[in-house]
Model the fold of this input.
Amino acid sequence: MKQTRGMTLLELMTAVAVVAVLITLAVAGAQGRIGGQRENAATRELWSSALRARQLAISTNQPVRFVVENNVLQPDGRSYTVARWERLRCGDDLSNPDLWSLDACPSTTCLNKSCRQSPGCCSETGTDIVIPASMNATSIHALCFLPGSGRPAFNKMDCLRGSLGTPATIAAAAPTDSSIQFRFTSKRAKSVLMVEPLTGLSSVMDCDSLAATTSDAAYKDVRLAAACAVP
Done:
């Protein structure tokens, strides 16, 4: 009668090691896909929010700015870096929101505070956009869409208070094509939020897209390629 030989300890250990490697590779691949999806979602949400912020600045005649804040507690009980837009109140008497002039917009109380720090500064806020740990979106912080016109001012928490009637100052504060870049520590190429200086309309473009990398003039976006070339 033929005897059945079982696995030796060495064979068993080898099989377990192979299975462990396969599981590790599968988990790493899944985490990479999930991380990429989160980066994509955050990038698109920031772009959509920029369009919404511009629309509100025009329709409400109030400045709408972006803030990026760290360690903000979310409904899942964890803290994240988040971004959102804030529609700022105008006038120095926040109890009378209808009494203000162009020179008093936004309120001095709100110039260097977010509405999370001082909720009374805002008429409305957008939904928190969670920024993945692999993504840096700090350059959108203090992007402000000016009241009435929706024109953009870059890196201006004060939304150009006192200078809203000065066209030269507004023009000088507009972001360049490369001003707002979303960077990633993953293998993903950076993205650029390109905001038109006169209209405030924005588009988000990836620096590994054909429009940015091709040498074919028929498909190349010269502005995007130049923006992506900025370190």
Notes: The chain is about 30% helix and 20% strand. Residues 151 and 200 are 5 Å apart (CA to CA). Strands lie at 64-73, 79-88, 122-125, 129-131, 135-136, 144-145, 152-153, 180-184, 191-195, 202-206.
